[in-house]
């Protein structure tokens, strides 16, 4: 059977554009002689529409769009993803469905059985799980149509108590009883750098176990925090993968399932993938929000330099504007390094000292502050004065402020709420500091865009004289290792200590993570690249007794 | 049977304090001759621990605490709520359980069947639903033990497409086949002013349908945004409710199920309830976070006045500090009204003009702003300068900033991010402006605490000369009606227009709501008093094409 794999980048609730993309791909597939074209999960609406799924007008628009797409299916069939109405008397009102479009209409509907409810997934909120299993017969073949998680046998959890468990049902086991010829999977599986081969392993395992070829179609593109990396593929029943689509971009191929023509992708290391993911994340955020221009504060440090370089790659140098905001504690090299960066990247920049504003705040507050020694309050005034300046530029010219906080800082609360934690989008909030260094080296792989001095100098917030991050924090290698074990692996402080880390350092780190839930509660959306990012995939109570 | 209803206020993850409260109540129940004492859902951990449920050390601590509580159960039995481990090979790793403690040990475990996944509920994320139904036999009676949602037949949704549906199973129907004598329900059901009799109706409906008395125990107290109102009760099989516990506070009573002694509660109107809820919400946030003191900006307007009065009631006048921050656009009466409020409430206040700081920002920005006419950028500088001042006081003295934004403003984005949207807790973010007026009148019911002028003057942000809210917004009566229909009732713009609202006003309002998701993304936690609050009970995609 000749099947087209259409790996597209959808825009949530933008039914017009999504339908146009889908219909264009249907026509292309037909022209290239395909019998069937497969799109990804919830392709009609974009993944994931969240509580828009509770709105009648949204569901009606989705149905109308499906009808419109169905009309394009003449002489070719298509599988698209969309919500469909549960007409029974029990359960949630919707299914997460694969709609089989043929002869100008919806000829069959297959619903998702395994609804993920871990990490960033929340599908049980809106959908009823399917309990009936039937192949679709088409052109003499039996197709086992599944949706994303349906191929996952084990519940992917990282909590370390009890054994890992299976789901209550195995959709593919049920479908395999009907002797299908081919498995089709419509997916919406986001990128995470530490789950690299996880997805392919699942596909291969299923293909081999059931001796069935699998057509796997994932979406690409970013939806606020989530970055979908594509990588759709055709897996043969022996577990080999002759056809693999591109990563982090739209792609399209027609596969003859009997005689697939090889299409391979270059393997990249994880830093190169994170780089691609973040560039796509920025670009799609701006395009889909209809924004064009960025503003960001340039401190001369590595975080803002990396974000600036990523923004230039995503949006073009003429759309990026840097603001340098030195204070009395800024070293000469900070300004020089930031200017060098702006010149290397050829972006517009301005220098505005915050000193007069800071002095004025301190003057006005001095009767209240009663000669108390300077401390966090005064440090935060500096960060917040900078926050006002960049937001003023943002408000005046419509440039969106990019946040430059990295995951290590975000974890331990080493940042000022309403100051440097401001921004429309956090670019590095899921990238540990040790990986920020690697990203900087990667960005400089061909030429020195980020000044060497920004990379090698000791990190500092420069909010008091001669301040360095290491005054109050462990070395980033140690800090990041502890954070990874605590956050990504859910290990307890005692388990981490047992692995050889200093007790005091572990307890202090964990305490900082716990005490700063309140800051993260108000943080911007964070581009997710790991298996456990801060944001809606990690829900911690704010008011609780930690420790 | 003599059963004690223990309605307590738990602290999430504070196992020591929760255990102490529970054991104290067990002893009291025993002293008062009860055979059984019933606590609320997840009473051992507090409701809801979110992803702490994924941490091994948390689950271990919960089990140890249950063992400790069980040891207190000698000569009396108890039903407590806690997570328990699913020892099967399939499904999630935990159940949401009612543990029957007797003779010093856990004698029986009953698991929750219906796991709510709507609005603020997210229980499928962590728990496997129960599928087995067995009464507990105790002292010659058969007890049908259920947990909260288990008594709900219909899925409570507000989406308006398709018919309302039943859950797949009805736990009480299953249990009723075993001829129980009594239904017991351990609950964690939060307050919302517009679902007043919803809960009682469900209980009465079940009691009458199955001809069974029901012991219903709810928790009280606030957990960040959620405010649990208690109102535990005993419902007779004829649907009458002879025993009702107090609202918004801990309460305890021993009921003889054969001959219950009447205990009734005074009925209050919805504004009085919202008032009680918000005072409890503030008090518990501070107590459980171990904070004592508040700071807030006093503008002379009604919102900050109401929040200030609520804070004084919750924490005491000596723990509340007001900061008046006039600018060149502040009218004389603004300062006078704010001073009057502070004096009426007998709180400390300071006056700091923002004008010098604002001037300095404008000076420094003028080379960049290139003589563009003043607008939103300049207005926001004022709001943000105030934000810096109150946060400086907060950082210096440890006072927590209360946010004073109301739900109408929050909905349409009529507030400055990193300015007046700052705060550790939003007190009025779920109270529409029209209800803020009613709250002010209620607060003044005995004496004029809030100056009459703050209530009657036209609302204004005072960020430009002679500005009034009605310059850009419809009257609050109309605005709030549209917002309620769009947000709480999920009605489409067309449905709202059909009810007689001006098309242009509806479309403009809805557009403002949609365009300001990004501001709410970074808003503080909001005390929830309605059936649909902004925050984690309303998940809207940020990047999407609205309209």
TrEMBL record, chains A, B:
It comes from the Bacteria. The keyword Electron transport does not apply. Its EC number is 6.3.5.1. Deamido-NAD(+) binds at residues 380, 409, 519. Coiled coil: none annotated. GO terms for biological process: NAD+ biosynthetic process. GO terms for cellular component: cytoplasm. The active site is at 41 (proton acceptor), 112 (for glutaminase activity), 148 (nucleophile). It catalyses: deamido-NAD(+) + L-glutamine + ATP + H2O = L-glutamate + AMP + diphosphate + NAD(+) + H(+). GO terms for molecular function: ATP binding; glutaminase activity; NAD+ synthase (glutamine-hydrolyzing) activity; NAD+ synthase activity. It is an enzyme of class 6 (ligase). ATP binds at residues 297-304, 404. PROSITE patterns: CN_HYDROLASE (PS50263). L-glutamine binds at residues 118, 189. CDD domains: GAT_Gln-NAD-synth (cd07570), NAD_synthase (cd00553). NCBIfam families: nadE (TIGR00552), PRK13981.1 (NF010588). Catalyzes the ATP-dependent amidation of deamido-NAD to form NAD. Uses L-glutamine as a nitrogen source. This is Glutamine-dependent NAD(+) synthetase. It comes from Gaoshiqia sediminis.
């Amino acid at each position: 059977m000749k099947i087209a794999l259409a790996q597209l980048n959808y825009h949530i609730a933008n039914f017009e554009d999504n339908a146009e993309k889908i219909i264009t791909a249907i026509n292309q597939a037909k022209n290239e002689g395909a019998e069937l074209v497969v799109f990804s999960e919830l392709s009609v609406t974009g993944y994931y529409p969240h509580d828009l799924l509770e709105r009648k007008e949204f569901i009606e628009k989705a149905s109308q769009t499906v009808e419109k797409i169905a009309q394009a299916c003449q002489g070719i069939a298509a599988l698209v993803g969309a919500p469909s109405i549960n007409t029974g008397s029990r359960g949630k009102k919707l299914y997460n469905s694969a709609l089989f479009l043929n002869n100008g209409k919806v000829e069959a509907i297959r619903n998702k059985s395994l609804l993920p409810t871990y990490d960033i997934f929340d599908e049980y909120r809106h959908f009823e799980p399917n309990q009936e299993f039937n192949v679709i017969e088409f052109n003499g073949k039996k197709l086992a149509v599944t949706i994303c998680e349906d191929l996952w046998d084990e519940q992917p959890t990282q909590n370390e108590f009890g054994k890992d468990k299976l789901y209550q049902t195995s959709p593919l086991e049920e479908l395999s009883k009907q002797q299908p010829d081919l498995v089709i999977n419509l997916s919406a599986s986001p990128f995470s750098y530490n789950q690299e081969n996880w997805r392919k392993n699942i596909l291969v395992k299923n293909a081999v176990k059931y001796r069935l070829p699998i057509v796997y179609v994932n979406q690409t593109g970013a939806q606020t925090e989530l970055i979908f990396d594509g990588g759709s593929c055709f897996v043969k029943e022996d577990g080999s993968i002759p056809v693999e689509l591109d990563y982090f971009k739209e792609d399209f191929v027609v596969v003859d399932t009997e005689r697939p023509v090889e299409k391979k992708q270059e393997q990249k290391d994880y830093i190169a993938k994170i780089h691609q993911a973040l560039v796509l994340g920025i670009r799609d955020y701006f395009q889909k929000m209809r924004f064009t221009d960025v503003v960001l504060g340039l401190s001369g440090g590595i975080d803002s330099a990396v974000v600036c370089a990523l923004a230039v790659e995503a949006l073009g140098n003429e759309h990026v504007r840097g603001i340098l905001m030195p204070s009395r504690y800024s070293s000469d090299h900070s300004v020089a390094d930031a200017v060098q960066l702006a010149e290397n990247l050829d972006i517009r920049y301005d220098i505005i000292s915050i000193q007069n504003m800071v002095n004025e705040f301190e003057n006005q507050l001095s009767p209240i502050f009663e000669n108390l020694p300077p401390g966090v309050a005064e440090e935060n005034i500096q960060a917040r004065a900078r926050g006002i300046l960049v937001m003023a530029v943002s408000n005046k010219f419509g440039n969106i402020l990019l946040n430059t906080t990295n995951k290590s800082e975000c974890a331990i609360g080493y940042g000022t709420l309403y100051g440097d934690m401001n921004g429309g989008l956090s670019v590095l909030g899921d990238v540990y500091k040790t990986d920020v260094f690697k990203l900087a080296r990667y960005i400089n792989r061909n030429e020195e865009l980020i000044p060497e001095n920004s990379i090698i100098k000791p990190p500092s917030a420069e909010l008091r004289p001669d301040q360095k991050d290491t005054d109050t924090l462990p070395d980033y290698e140690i800090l990041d290792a502890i954070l990874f074990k605590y956050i990504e692996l859910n290990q307890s402080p005692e388990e981490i200590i047992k692995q050889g880390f200093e007790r005091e350092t572990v307890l202090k780190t964990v305490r900082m993570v716990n005490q700063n839930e309140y800051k993260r509660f108000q943080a911007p959306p964070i581009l997710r690249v790991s298996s456990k990012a801060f944001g809606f995939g990690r829900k911690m109570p704010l008011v609780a007794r930690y420790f």
